[in-house]
């Protein structure tokens, strides 16, 4: 069994913990929160072995194999570095780090601790539907572009309208639409098409100074990918990848719960796998596979592939922000 510790007690951590239980490959060894009542309540609800209000105590006392970090974006870096220093593997909620400077420092730390594994929790690129999408792309005679959309109204935006600054809409915490929802379609584009030649971001800023929604352009040799995302409105638009006469349609570039292939003949084929019991189950199973058998050649190849995706996504997110002059306090030394 893999001994997991968690940082953060919000809904995404709850979903992760439920996926761990479904996998049968992990035990919840520790729960960290800044507040004792929150830590204890989360630990009790999920049958964790211990709760902590001091992160260092969890790293030194809980005998962890891996820690899952789902704190506000700006806190990921220091918490990940501390775990690496203790030779503890890390799963960091996307986007893993605020900028390329932090990612470079993480790479250097990993080089000094070569046994430590770093995973970015981009759940959708581990799902059966993503694998079906990859296979369908191989059947296209060429790719002429894509339009990827992921736009969901956030209840936290109500707080912004009331004059507050929630973390997810705060530059101080490396928040905003690009970092929160935009990372999903950006991840999808990178995983499917690789690193773009040029990127440009057109954000719509809100009262907090963060981006509430926006459009990103990714330019590849021979085609462009348009990425639309936001947290201040809802979209019912599907996402599409364009072949010649063929089109692959996705219900959402973030959820990937439905995938269709529209053939040149007009025939529509549903490529979707059955609904998942938990959308995070495939990724925790993938991570467990690597953690339990790190020397397996296929596991090594998959790990390097996921790591390269994370590095490229980090670079692209940073370049998009630079193109829009959208800076975070975390960028001060960059």
UniProtKB/TrEMBL annotation:
Residues 165-247 form the GFO/IDH/MocA-like oxidoreductase domain. Residues 2-115 form the Gfo/Idh/MocA-like oxidoreductase N-terminal domain. SUPFAM superfamilies: Glyceraldehyde-3-phosphate dehydrogenase-like, C-terminal domain, NAD(P)-binding Rossmann-fold domains. InterPro entries: Gfo/Idh/MocA-like_OxRdtase_N (IPR000683), GFO_IDH_MocA-like_dom (IPR055170), NAD(P)-bd_dom_sf (IPR036291). It holds the Pfam family GFO_IDH_MocA. GO terms for molecular function: nucleotide binding. PANTHER family: PTHR43054, SCYLLO-INOSITOL 2-DEHYDROGENASE (NADP(+)) IOLU. This is Gfo/Idh/MocA family oxidoreductase. It comes from Levilactobacillus suantsaiihabitans.
């Amino acid at each position: 069994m893999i001994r997991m510790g968690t940082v953060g007690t919000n809904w995404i951590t709850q979903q992760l913990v439920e996926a761990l239980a479904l996998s049968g490959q992990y035990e919840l060894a520790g729960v960290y929160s800044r507040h004792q009542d929150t830590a204890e309540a989360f630990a009790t609800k999920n049958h964790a072995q211990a709760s902590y209000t001091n992160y260092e105590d969890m790293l030194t006392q809980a005998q962890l194999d891996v820690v899952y970090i789902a704190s506000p974006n700006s806190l990921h870096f220091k918490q990940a570095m501390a775990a690496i220093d203790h030779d503890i593997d890390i799963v960091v909620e996307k986007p893993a780090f605020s900028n390329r400077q932090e990612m470079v420092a993480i790479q250097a730390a990993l080089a000094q601790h070569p046994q430590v594994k770093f995973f970015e929790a981009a759940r959708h690129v581990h799902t059966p539907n993503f694998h079906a999408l990859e296979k369908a792309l191989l059947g296209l005679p060429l790719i002429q572009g894509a339009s990827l959309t992921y736009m969901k109204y956030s209840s936290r935006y109500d707080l912004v309208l009331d004059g507050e600054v929630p973390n997810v809409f705060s530059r101080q915490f490396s928040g905003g639409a690009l970092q929160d929802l935009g990372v999903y379609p950006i991840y999808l584009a990178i995983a499917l098409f690789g690193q773009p030649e040029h990127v440009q971001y057109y954000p719509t800023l809100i009262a907090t100074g963060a981006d509430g929604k926006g459009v990103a352009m990714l330019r590849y040799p021979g085609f462009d990918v348009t990425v639309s995302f936001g947290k201040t409105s809802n979209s019912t638009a599907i996402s599409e990848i364009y072949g010649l006469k063929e089109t692959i349609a996705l219900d959402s570039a973030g959820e990937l719960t439905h995938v269709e292939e529209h053939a040149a003949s007009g025939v529509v084929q549903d490529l979707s796998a059955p609904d998942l019991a938990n959308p995070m189950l495939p990724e925790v199973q993938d991570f467990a596979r690597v953690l339990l058998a790190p020397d397996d050649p296929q596991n090594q190849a998959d790990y390097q592939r996921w790591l390269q995706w994370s590095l490229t996504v980090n670079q692209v997110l940073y370049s998009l922000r630079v193109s829009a002059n959208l800076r975070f306090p975390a960028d001060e030394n960059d």
